[in-house]
Structure formats: structure tokens, C-alpha cells
Amino acid sequence: MFPPAWVTLPVVAGATVGDFDVHESVDGVDVHVLADAVAGYLSLEAAERDYGVVSATSASPMRSCGCLRTIGSITGRRATCAARKERPMETASSALFGKVALVTGAARNIGRAVAERLARDGANVALVDVDAAVEVAARELGHGADVIALRADVNSATDVDRCFHEVVARWQRLDILVNNAAITRGAVRHFLEGDEAWWDDVVGVNLKGQFLCARRAAPLMAAQGGGVIINMSSGGATRAHRGMVAYDASKGGSEALTRALALDLAPYGIRAVAIVPGLIRYEGQAADSVRAAANTVPLARMGAPADIAAAAAFLASDDAAYITGATIVVDGGLLVQQRSPQAETFTVSSFPPLTETTTEEGR
Hints:
Blueprint: E1 25-26, E2 29-30, H1 31-39, H2 44-51, E3 55-57, E4 67-70, H3 82-86, E5 100-104, H4 109-120, E6 124-129, H5 133-141, E7 147-151, H6 157-171, E8 176-179, H7 196-224, E9 227-232, H8 245-265, E10 270-277, H9 287-294, H10 305-316, E11 327-330, H11 356-362
Parallel strand pairs: 5-6, 5-8, 6-7, 8-9, 9-10, 10-11
Antiparallel strand pairs: 1-2, 3-4
């Protein structure tokens, strides 16, 4: 795929790529073919083979995706792709039309909302989760969209390899990876009560899982000329929660991973970004809990999973083509203020008492 910024287009007075559908042709080129080529849904090879593109050259040694320099005469045939046939409600103007996304932790809450939004914006989506509920989510999102459910533990290299194999077998590419899977509520434990198994579980899913998925995604994206990796972080990456040492450490690592990936992968056209969600409502949350959390947020409400999904959809789109290595905070202003006790997940009153056992272990 190659972004519009790397394409030289014929000029039509007052026209943009979005206006192409109103023209029958541009300089003799069927505009639907041109629009597909610009959006990256038609490969240069396919354009040359099927539609008579006469010259396509590489933009630079670093950019394997190429740059369309000149387009020859085309007989008027219009580009047709499998995704357009499967989802007639989507058009080439959809922000993510024809792209392929893999979203981890997609069974519910933020992950499910992200998968739903990407599918709505035209992407083919693989929903990955260790929870069987991911199959229900995929069925519910599957009306009019090409989605699949994959049961997997992102802390397992074998599971991750299987997921990517299935995605490539189905769609032959991957454009968007959303590393959302995380242990959150299960991570709440005071440091004095923590053990190695707890640490390994939390860091394994939250940080190692992002590494394993990114490791599999990056070669695929590099081979096709680009893509985007979106890592879910947390305010705990730069601040701290009481009683969430392993979680905060994993999220700090996630942001460091994002910055390092951005530098290593930029020459291959791959972007890496992180999202910091604020206080986001979750399934089954009590109304009193929602009201208490909302009182802590400057915008006076808890966030909805759709708020995070909107940010992910933007970062996955070509509108964010110049954003990499960045961390985007979506929290209603929560982190810019001094923290209130209302935002604590583990109050001081919950700290373990100092016992003889604790004292002995410290010696």
C-alpha cells in the first residue's frame, strides 16, 4: 500500500480525491481505478497488469511501497475488489476501506468498541481474546462486515503465531494492530502482597503480549509497505496507582516500547503510537461507581469505550499519517489536574498491616 502523499495525480480544477466519483475519467484514467490505487486498495502490480498503468517507480530505497508517477490510458473498466463485493455499503471513501486490522482483548469494553469502530469504518477485523465471549462479539459485529474471532492468550508465542497465520491466510495482509489485551482489575495487589506469579502474569499479558504481537505484525507490514501499531497504555505509565505496581510497570514499558518501535520501524513505513485511556466505563459497572468517577474528571463524565475507539480509528487512518512515536491521552482532562482520592483504585485504608511475617520476609 502507498499513502496519497506519495502519489502524483493528474490535476482536475477544484477536484480532490474525494471528488473522483463525480468524474467519468481523469486524463483518460478511470477514476475508480485511480481512487483505489491512491487509497492503496489496488496494488501497483495489479494496476499495471489489469488496468494498463504504464509507469510505477519506487519513491526511495527506504519506501518499498512505491510512488505512482504516470498513468496511461485505461479502457474504462472499473476496479472491483472482494471487500467491495462483500460489503456493498462500504465505499472507497470509507476511512479504512479494504484494510485489515487485528485487535487484542476484543471480547468486551474498549477492545470490542475499537473492533466495532474499525469494522464500521471499512476494515476487515480479527477479534482476539482469551475469553470465549470474543466469539459472541464477532457474531454481533459480523452483520455486513468481514470479521473473525480468534481465541488466544497474547502471553503465548504459539497462540500469537496461530492468530497471525489465520489472519494472513484469510486476508493476505495486515494494516492495523491494536494491542489492547491487558490484565487490569486482576492486577490490583499491594506490593507487599505481590509474588512472582502475579508479576509474570500482569507483565506477560500487558507488555510481553504487545511485544509478541508487534514482532509478528512488523514483518508483514514492512513487506507490504507500511502499517500502524497502536498500543493501549495507561495514566499509570507516567503517574502511579496505589496497589498496581506490576500494572504501572507494564504500562510504562508499553510506552517505551511504542517509542522504540516508532524509531526502528519508521524506515519501513510503519507507525507506532500509544493511547492513554482515562476512566472508562466498563460492562456491569454500578451507577454509583460511575457517578463517583465522573466527579473526578474535569469534563464531568466517565469516558465511554467509543471515545477510545474514535481515537484508535483516527490513528489508524491516513489522517494520522504523520503521527508516530506519540502518546495520545483520551481522559477528559484527568491527568492534567492534581489527583483526587476519588480516582484511587486501592486506598491507603486497604494497605496490609505490618505483621511479624511481613517483617521476617523483609530481613
